[in-house]
C-alpha cells in the first residue's frame, strides 16, 4: 500500500496501536485512486467508509437549488466521512468529492466493526477516529455560528492555512458563506491595514 507508513503513523498518533492490530486491520482497508471530480460519497447513499487521505484533497458540499455550498475540505493525513450516515445508516444529505487526483485508504465499516469485536486496540482506534473527526467538525460549527466572515477568514489563516493555499477563492467564499466579491473586499481591507 502506497500510504502504509503514513497511515500507521497517523493511527499511532491517535492511540497506541501494535503491529499485530495493524495486521488484523488489513481486511478492512482498501487503497483507492480517485480522479478529480470522482465521488467518495454521493447524497442519498449510506456512508459505509472512513476515508483516510494519503494524497490530494476533497470537499464536502450540499447542492441547494443548483448552487454548491461547501461545508468542509479534507487534506492529507485527515479522515473524511459523513459521521451521521456512517454511525446511523441513514442516507447522506451531502456529497464528498475529490478536488484533485487523490489516493485514499477506505476503512470499510462492516469489516472494521467485525475486527473491533476481536481487538480492543482496533475498537479504541475506531472511537479515536470518530472523536477526532467530530471534534474538528464541532470547532468549525462554533466558528461559523459565532464569528463574522472576517473572523472566519482569520480562523482559516491561523488554523487551516492549507485551505487558503490550495483551494480556489470562489470555493473558499462558498465555504465561508459569502460571495466571492465580499471575500475579495475583506482580503483587500485586511491587506491595506
UniProtKB/TrEMBL annotation:
Residues 13-82 form the Cyclic nucleotide-binding domain. This is Crp/Fnr family transcriptional regulator. Pfam families: cNMP_binding. InterPro entries: cNMP-bd_dom, cNMP-bd_dom_sf, RmlC-like_jellyroll. It comes from the Bacteria.
Amino acid at each position: 500500500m502506497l500510504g502504509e507508513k503514513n497511515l500507521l503513523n497517523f493511527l499511532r498518533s491517535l492511540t497506541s496501536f501494535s503491529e499485530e492490530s495493524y495486521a488484523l486491520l488489513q481486511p478492512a482497508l482498501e487503497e483507492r485512486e480517485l480522479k478529480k471530480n470522482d465521488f467518495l460519497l454521493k447524497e442519498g447513499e449510506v456512508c459505509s467508509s472512513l476515508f483516510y487521505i494519503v494524497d490530494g484533497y476533497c470537499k464536502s458540499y450540499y447542492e441547494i437549488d443548483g448552487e454548491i455550498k461547501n461545508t468542509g475540505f479534507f487534506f492529507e493525513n485527515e479522515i473524511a466521512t459523513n459521521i451521521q450516515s456512517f454511525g446511523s445508516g441513514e442516507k447522506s444529505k451531502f456529497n464528498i468529492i475529490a478536488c484533485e487526483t487523490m489516493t485514499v485508504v477506505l476503512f470499510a465499516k462492516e469489516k472494521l466493526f467485525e475486527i473491533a469485536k476481536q481487538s480492543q486496540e482496533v475498537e479504541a482506534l475506531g472511537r479515536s477516529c470518530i472523536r477526532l473527526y467530530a471534534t474538528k467538525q464541532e470547532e468549525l460549527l462554533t466558528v461559523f455560528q459565532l464569528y463574522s466572515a472576517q473572523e472566519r477568514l482569520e480562523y482559516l489563516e491561523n488554523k487551516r492555512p492549507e485551505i487558503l493555499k490550495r483551494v480556489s477563492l470562489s470555493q473558499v467564499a462558498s465555504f465561508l458563506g459569502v460571495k466571492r466579491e465580499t471575500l475579495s473586499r475583506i482580503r483587500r481591507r485586511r491587506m491595506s491595514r
